Amino acid sequence: MVPRLSHIYIKNFGPITEASINFESVTILTGPYNTGKTYLATLAHLLTKITSYIFQFIDPYDVLHKHGIYGHFSQEEARKMLRDYLDEIRELTTTRLKQVLLSSLSREFSEHFAIFSPSELVSWDSNSAYIEASSKIGDKVAFKIAFEIEKPSGRINIKNLVISDYAVESFINSIRVIDIREGSISISYTGLRVWEPNYIPAERLFLISNIHSLLQLIIETHGARVLGYDIARRYTLQRIKGMMRPILLTYLTRLLDNLRKKKPYGIEKAVVSIEDIAELINGDVRFDKDTLVFFYRRKRGHEVPLAGASSGISQLIALIFSLPSDEKSLRSTPLIIIEEPEINLHANHQLKVAEFLAKLCQHTNLLLTTHSEYILEKLAHLWADGKIPSFSAYFLDPETHKAEKIKTKKETGEIELIRTINEAVEALAGEALRLMGGSEGKTNQI
Predict the structure, then answer these.
(1) Per residue in 10-45, is it b (16+ CB within 10 Å) or e — as a string?
(2) In whole angstroms, what is the distance from residue 352 CA to residue 350 CA?
(3) For residue range 368-427, what is the model confidence (pLDDT) as tens digits?
(4) Is 208 within 8 Å of 318 (Cβ atoms)?
(5) To the nearest whole number, what is the mean pLDDT of the chain?
(6) pLDDT, average across residues 38-66
(7) What are phi and psi of 368, to 5 degrees?
(8) What DSSP string runs through 418-443?
(9) Cα–Cα distance between 265 and 260 in angstroms, integer?
(10) What is the distance between the alpha carbons of residues 260 and 437, in angstroms, rounded to a whole number?
């Protein structure tokens, strides 16, 4: 019952004039620097977070109180009763959620994009930005929202907000027991929670390599004891906000939580095996909780601190330890966003990473930003081979500032050559021909 982001449409947002993105098991954003890939990835995180909170605002108490319904109800009794008031519950939830979003969207944008006002996200030559998003539970629409950001005020106007009957029915079907009394309601659920997206930034190597220094800063300012308390830890992490983008702080917080409860590997159980990870990094890795240092040991080699490993291995370790730990956690993560999984990797290892990611997308959706033709083509081949449920790729054009869907053949995984890559290939071919011509001239002179 995890709501997953299914579509985003934006206009005049940051460097992007227009983009319409359908989210699949694997969705890829590619294009030159400064075309808006990180803008879109950050927006996807924000919107996934919003859609994942729908169920927090479904509270049937006021509706039941209005109709004078009190008492203790079993699972079947509760579900049957609430279905009679589905429309009223949906309308009340929509009103509540709209009020909350009007007061919180501005803060969410500021925290995600490290800005003072949402007006900074409106394209420089436009007076407003427009954003639409929808999410699905399974193959059915659960939630839709459309809003506008004004410039220069930064005011956010919600144009449309829809919570579907199916979303409310999913909530009702999750109820085990309900107890309603005058002034209070108690509900027990099955499998209902707040689902958080997982953002793995391009800066992951810096953060994981400097985790000791970052934690030392916390210890020096507040003492080591605070690291043992979640509320205190969250408070002290606020002290290092100025050192990084807020979304990186979220990543660091999740990484610390992962390291506390993980075994030596980032993926447990049946999703990706220990053997898969050993093959990926050509060795194994452990995290020493006492010294806060990662150690890497190559197959049949000595153990060295992460700082002594190659940059490629360090990147892979940073990626592995950033991921949910098991199949259950993966399934309850609505979206994993990974920036540039190819950083510091040779071409053959990029192909291995693509195969690694294909195993994850059997349980959740992935959004990747990449400059790698190898990552893009390998994932398209895996999709054609049936190892990825669904696939889409988009090119952010530096001239039109629009997102263009990349044509891909499902039968063969053949993917059209990206224009900027084609331009680079032609430029190199032209230089080769020129040099060959010059070489022949010199030979004739001799």
Answers:
(1) bbbbbbbbebebebbbbbbbbbeeebbbbbbbbbbb
(2) 5
(3) 999 998 999 999 999 999 999 999 999 999 999 999 999 988 888 888 877 777 777 778
(4) yes
(5) 82
(6) 88
(7) -115, 140
(8) PHHHHHHHHHHHHHHHHHHHHHHHHH
(9) 12
(10) 62
Q: Which residue has the tokens 């690291």?
A: 227
Q: Is-contact 258 325, C-beta < 8 A?
A: yes
Report the pLDDT value the prediction gives residue 237, as an integer from 0 to 100: 46
Q: Which amino acid is at 108?
A: E
At 219, the pLDDT band (50, 70, 90 cuts) reads: low
Tokens of 205: 């190597």
Peptide bond into 152 cis (omega under 30): yes
What dihedral angle (degrees, nearest 10) is formed by the CA atoms of 318, 319, 321, 327? 180
Which residue type does 1 have? M
pLDDT, tens digit, 9 for 90 and up, residues 394-406: 999 999 999 999 9
Two structure tokens written together for 133: 């998003």
**DSSP characters over 393-407:** EEEE-TTT-BEEEPP
CA distance 290 to 375: 37
Q: How confident is the model at residue 442 (pLDDT cuts 50, 70, 90)?
A: low
Per-residue pLDDT band at 240 (split at 50, 70, 90): very low
**Cα gap 201→21, rounded to integer Å:** 20
Joined tokens for residue 254: 């999740």
Rounded CA separation 131/136 (Å): 17
Q: Report d(CA 51, CA 196) in Å as an integer.
A: 10
- Reply yes or no on whether the pLDDT at 430 is more than 90: no
**Residue 30 backbone phi and psi in degrees, to 5:** -135, 165
Give residue 5's Cα distance to chain centre: 10
Which residues, listed in sequence order, are joined to residue 137 by a DSSP beta bridge?
3, 140
Q: What's the pLDDT band for 268 if we cut at 50, 70, 90?
A: very low
Q: Which residues contact 26 (CB under 8 A, 6 or more apart)?
A: 357, 358, 361, 365, 366, 368, 379, 383, 388, 390, 391, 392
Q: Which amino acid is at 137?
A: I
**Which residue, chain included where needed, has tokens 């009702």?**
172
Q: Which two tokens stand for residue 145?
A: 């929202």
- DSSP-derived 3-state class of residue 370: strand
Are the CB atoms for 333 and 364 separated by under 8 Å?
Answer: yes
Helix (H, G, I), strand (E, B) or coil at 365: coil
Q: If pLDDT is split at 50, 70 and 90, which confidence band does 327 have? A: confident
Helix axes 274-281, 311-320, angle to 10 degrees: 160
Residue 199 and residue 47 in contact, taking contact as beta carbons nearer than 8 Å: no
For residue 251, give the amino acid letter. Answer: Y
CA dihedral for 31, 33, 34, 36, sign (positive or negative): positive
